[in-house]
Structure formats: structure tokens, C-alpha cells
Specification:
Length: 285
């Protein structure tokens, strides 16, 4: 009888316990909670703590307060200079209005789907106004900020704040890579050839200038040498004339001795001359 009484008493207690457990819920520090009654929003709770609801009639839906990361799908974009890129982006967002979030996108999957659509349309619009050199330069951060600001303005309609957006990757489409690389190689070769032509032209100018200066220097040196040689010859002639004029007979005798020395230095030398020739005048004396 006692066991049956315990069973009878435990059933209502379990029911009461179940009702109590179904009526109480905890909101964590990182959560914001909606209380719903048959899908209709009753309350928005943003502060952590223990709360009560009507069991079986009301239920709760929790959303994260923290910043959430979301990898966006890579999209092909055509830039202002008609270059095509595959743009890979990622976004960081948070739910700032859980009631509006629930009514418009319901959950995180719905939010990410909307963000993906927004990113595709806004990113294509912004990238269509910039050039490839801008995407590959420090202006890249500015472009990312423009896309983020426009996405944030549009995402407010879903109770979402887009905190950050970055262009994580900008790659050439596979079908365009080879053609672009070949064009870049051709442009580099053309530039190299132009530099070589300029170098050859400069070398020719330098060589021509050097040859001209060399010719001028040689001409001036030859002129100076001839002038000095002429001055030397004139000095020798004037000196010899002065010496010769002092004693003509001695000078004639000295010149004859030098002539004998040069002519008679070999024992086999033969002269066919008359002994009375003027050449032997000093020998005959």
C-alpha cells in the first residue's frame, strides 16, 4: 500500500517539477533571447539571468551577442579597366536588433544568405569603378571599407551590423591568367628593347663626343709640337749661324774632319776622286 501511495504522490510532483523546469530558463552572458508565443514575439531579453515563461505556450530563441565570422563566396568581377578578377571576401557581423533579425531572416543561415546576396551586388558595383592597380595597392583597404559601409547600411534592415569586411584574395580567372601573363611578358620585353635602344643611342653619342674631343686634342697637340719643333729648329739655325759666323774657316775645317771621320771609318772604303778634289783640301796641306 505504501509503494502505491508513493507512486501516486510522485506523479503530481514530477508534473509540478516538469512545469517548473519548463517555465524557467537561463540567459547566458553571450546571449540575447526572444520569448515567443505560438511564433509571436512577446519579449526581448538582453541581460543575463534566470527568467520565467509560460510553459508549453511560450518558447525561447537565443541569438549570439558576439561578433560572428562569415566566409563569403568568391565572385568574378570586372574592373573599370576591363580586367577580370576572382574576389574572395570574408565578413564579420553581429546581431544588434534580435526582434528585427527574427522577423526578417529568422536565423544565422538566413542572415548569411542575405549577406551573400548583398556582398555580390555591392562588391560588383564598387569593384566596377576601380582599376587593377588600385586593388593591388594600399587603396585596397579603402575599397574594402566602401564595400563594408554599403553592406552595413543595407544590413540594418535585417537587424545586423557589418563590423568588418576584407578582400581576402584577388586572383585572376584561370582562363585569363595565361593570356595576361603572356601580355605582361611581351610588355616587359618591349620595355627592355626600348631601354637597350636608348642605351645604344647614348653609347653612340658618348663615343662620337669622345672621338671629336680626341681629334681636337690631337690636332692641338700636333700644332703645339710643330710650333715647338719650329722654334727649336729656328734656335738651332740661329745658334749655328752665330757660331759659324764667328770663324768661318774653323767651322769649315771642323765640318771636313767630321766628314773624314764618317767616310774613312772602314778600311775597305774606296774613293774614286781626284787627289786635287776640294774634299781632300785639308789632307793635302
Amino acid at each position: 500500500m505504501k509503494s502505491k501511495s508513493l507512486i501516486v504522490l510522485s506523479i503530481p510532483m514530477l508534473v509540478i517539477l516538469g512545469i517548473l523546469m519548463g517555465s524557467l530558463f537561463v540567459v547566458q552572458q553571450t546571449q540575447q533571447t526572444l520569448v515567443l508565443e505560438f511564433g509571436k514575439l512577446i519579449r526581448v531579453i538582453k541581460e543575463p539571468g534566470l527568467y520565467a515563461k509560460i510553459p508549453f505556450l511560450q518558447n525561447v530563441r537565443n541569438y549570439d551577442k558576439r561578433i560572428l565570422d562569415f566566409d563569403l563566396t568568391a565572385i568574378p568581377a570586372t574592373l573599370a579597366d576591363q580586367k577580370r578578377l576572382l574576389v574572395d571576401t570574408f565578413a564579420r557581423y553581429r546581431i544588434v536588433d534580435p526582434a528585427l533579425f527574427y522577423r526578417t531572416v529568422m536565423n544565422e543561415e538566413g542572415a548569411e544568405q542575405r549577406l551573400r546576396i548583398l556582398n555580390q551586388s555591392i562588391a560588383l558595383s564598387v569593384l566596377g569603378q576601380v582599376k587593377l592597380t588600385d586593388v593591388l595597392s594600399p587603396k585596397r583597404a579603402e575599397i574594402s571599407k566602401t564595400i563594408r559601409d554599403q553592406m552595413n547600411a543595407a544590413a540594418k534592415a535585417f537587424g545586423i551590423e557589418v563590423v568588418d569586411l576584407q578582400l581576402r584574395g584577388t586572383d585572376l580567372p584561370a582562363e585569363n591568367s595565361e593570356a595576361i601573363f603572356n601580355r605582361m611578358i611581351s610588355e616587359r620585353k618591349q620595355e627592355a628593347q626600348e631601354f637597350r635602344s636608348r642605351g645604344d643611342e647614348a653609347a653612340q653619342e658618348i663615343k662620337a663626343t669622345a672621338d671629336k674631343e680626341r681629334t681636337i686634342i690631337l690636332a692641338e697637340a700636333t700644332k703645339l709640337a710643330e710650333t715647338i719643333r719650329g722654334q727649336g729648329d729656328a734656335y738651332v739655325t740661329s745658334t749655328a749661324a752665330a757660331v759659324y759666323g764667328k770663324d768661318i774657316n774653323f767651322y769649315d775645317f771642323y765640318r771636313s774632319l767630321n766628314a773624314y771621320k764618317a767616310a774613312l771609318n772602314n778600311e775597305t772604303t774606296t774613293f774614286i776622286l781626284s787627289p786635287k778634289d776640294d774634299f781632300f783640301k785639308y789632307l793635302n796641306r
